[in-house]
């Protein structure tokens, strides 16, 4: 499956969205910044899917995770709710497992 875009981690401001890998590499500027491909399809999740990834109820997810300052920023907020990249939610879930009892 071919990526539809690329994103570059900008440690000062968050993420930079790029349309080509060449543009992403230029944005990364050789500084070792993380470059990730973005795919469409199963890579987007809403509240229900994010709650399932975190193995919690939808209402608890919104209260305990989506409102947390450590939770990823949604890529969009629609009338049906917030939308996240699945890989961001999965990364947070791994981080949360390590840090939840601290």
Polypeptide structure, described:
- The chain has 102 residues and is of the alpha+beta class.
- The chain contains four helices and six strands, in the order E-E-H-E-E-H-H-E-E-H.
- Strand 5 (76-78) and strand 6 form a beta hairpin.
- The termini are far apart.
- The mean pLDDT is 85.
Write the layout of secondary structure elements.
Layout lengths: L4 E6 L3 E5 L2 H8 L6 E4 L5 E2 L1 H7 L4 H9 L9 E3 L2 E5 H14 L3
Average pLDDT over all residues: 85
Secondary-structure element order, N to C: EEHEEHHEEH
Helix content: 25-40%
**Strand-pairing-aware structural class:** alpha+beta
Shape: globular
Instruction: Provide the low-confidence segments as ranges.
Output: none
- Rg, alpha carbons: 15 Å
Largest sheet: 3 strands, antiparallel
- Return the domain count: 2
How large a portion of the residues is in β-strands, by DSSP E? 15-25%
Number of helices: 4
Strand arrangement, major sheet: 2-1-3
Distance between the termini: 39 Å
Number of strands: 6
Main features:
102 residues, three-stranded antiparallel beta sheet, alpha+beta, 2 domains, single chain, 4 helices, 25% strand, globular
Can I get a quick summary?
The mean pLDDT is 85. This protein is 37% helix and 25% strand. The chain has 102 residues and is an alpha+beta fold.
